[in-house]
Every structure is written in C-alpha cells, then in structure tokens.
Specification:
- By secondary structure, the protein is an alpha/beta fold.
- It has a single domain, classed as TIM Barrel (Alpha-Beta Barrel).
- Helix content is 40%, strand content 16%.
- It contains ten helices and eight strands.
- Strands 3-2-1-8-7-6-5-4 form an eight-stranded parallel sheet.
- Strand 6, helix 7 and strand 7 form a beta-alpha-beta unit.
- Helix 1 runs parallel beside helix 3 and helix 8 packs parallel to helix 9.
- It starts with a strand and ends with a helix.
C-alpha cells in the first residue's frame, strides 16, 4: 500500500477562504493524497478570541470540501471540539485527532461514535497517554509520531519512536514540523505509512504555522522523494533482482569454466 501523504494546510489560510482554496490547489499540484484543515471555535477552545481570526465557518468548510472533491484530492479536517466532530463526520472519510486532544475524553468518544477510521497524532505524549486514547477509540487507528514544536529542531525529532509505537500493533506514520523535507523522507524509509507535512504559500507570512511549513515546490520535491523511497524499499525478500541476473549468469559461467580447466 502506498504511503498516504497529507498536506497539512491547518490555519495557513489566515482566515481567507480564497487562500484556503489556493492551498487546496497547491496540495493537489504537489501530488499530496489529501489536504487537511483545522476546525475550531476560539472561545470554546481557549475561552477567548485569541485565534478567532483563523476560524473557518461551517459554510466555508462545505465550500472547501466541494473544492477539494472537484480538484480530485481527499478533504480532511481536524476537529477541536465535539460540535466540530459531529459537523465534519459527513464531509470526511477519516477523522484526524490533534496531539493536544489526545486526553480529551469527550472528543475521543465523539470521534468513536462516527465509526470512521482515525489518524491520531501523539506529540507531547508518552505511551500511557496513547494507551488512554486508544481505549476510547475504535479499532481502526493509525498512530502518528510527532514532536509538537513549530518549527521542530532536528535533534528533537526522535524518529526512532516510530519503531516504538509499533508495540500497539497499529499502522504508524509521522507528522513533521521541521523546516525541511529531509525528515519526512527519512520517516518513509523507516516504514511510516502516513506522512503529514505543513504546506504554505508564503513561509514569511505572520500566522503561527508558516515557519514550520514548506512551499509547494518543496512539497512536490518531498513527495517525489518519498515515492522513490517506496520503490527502493522493495518487498524485503532477499533474492537476486532481475537486473542482476545477466551479471550473475556471467560470473557463474566464468567460475564454472575455471573449475573445468
């Protein structure tokens, strides 16, 4: 199965519907499998309007869902409350749970009720936190290792944690917040089945996630790199490859001729 690549558009639209549409188009052009936004109400989430300017309304989410469908890319959106879970359920094929919500019992229970597959980010969490979340979710869960720093320093990535998360006997992927494309490609080589990476149209914009994002050109290079890694991984069976057979034949015929002389 091909690695599922998510263009995390998040709040990089800066509250603009037109910018959000452009981000969807950029994600499609960069060959992502899915584009993902975030849906929240600032006052319900934080108790004040600190990120109200980054909200997208229900009507706007429907428009973006339709835009993604017309563009030929899967629409995803992270809910940050039960109301958002219930609204998004008919619009998405799978639910994405943010790292900050891993201990939100009400949200986990609402996601379980949708019976949709779940992608669970595990930033800021230890194994006990993950166990708690999994107890309250259905069986169809993919875990994403990540470090919740924006941008994330390379020495804080801890990519080997991908291997540790396999103890849960679930698919494991990686959500990247570094400022480059190296780590997501390395995660693919380590066996990640999902790669999530922030995409922006302007890394110098003032929003909270732009600095931890890459531009469309970089994103396409990353996707190409991941696809090449997939080809290089092969099936893991140790045997001569077809491209080796002529040389194998020549060597063995050479060795055989020396034995008979």
């Amino acid at each position: 199965m091909a690695i599922f690549i998510i263009a995390e558009l998040g709040v990089n639209h800066d509250g603009s519907l037109d910018e959000a549409k452009r981000l969807i188009d950029a994600a499609k052009s960069a060959c992502a499998n899915a584009c993902k936004f975030q849906m929240f109400n600032s006052r319900r989430l934080w108790g004040d309007g600190r990120i109200a300017h980054l909200e997208l309304s229900e009507a706007q989410m429907v428009i973006l869902s339709d835009h993604a469908k017309n563009a030929g890319i899967e629409f995803l959106c992270t809910p940050f409350g039960v109301t958002e879970v219930q609204f998004l359920a008919p619009l998405v094929r799978r639910m994405k749970i943010a790292s900050g919500c891993i201990a939100r019992y009400d949200l986990l229970a609402a996601v379980r009720k949708t019976k949709l597959p779940v992608i669970l980010s595990t930033g800021m969490s230890d194994l006990d936190n993950i166990r708690f979340a999994l107890k309250h979710l259905g069986p169809d869960v993919t875990l994403l290792h990540c470090t919740s720093a924006y941008p994330c320093p390379i020495n804080a990535v801890n990519l080997k944690a991908i291997d540790r998360l396999r103890m849960f006997h679930l698919p494991v992927g990686y959500s990247d917040h570094t400022a480059s494309i190296v780590v997501p490609i390395a995660a693919a080589a380590r066996g990640a089945v999902v790669i999530e990476k922030h995409l922006t149209l302007d890394r110098n914009a003032s929003g909270p996630d732009h600095k931890a994002s890459i531009n469309p050109t970089q994103f396409k290079v990353m996707v190409d790199g991941i696809r090449r890694v997939e080809l290089a991984l092969g099936d893991g069976i140790k045997r001569p490859q077809s491209c080796e057979l002529p040389l194998q034949k020549a060597w063995r015929e050479h060795i055989s001729s020396h034995r008979t002389t």
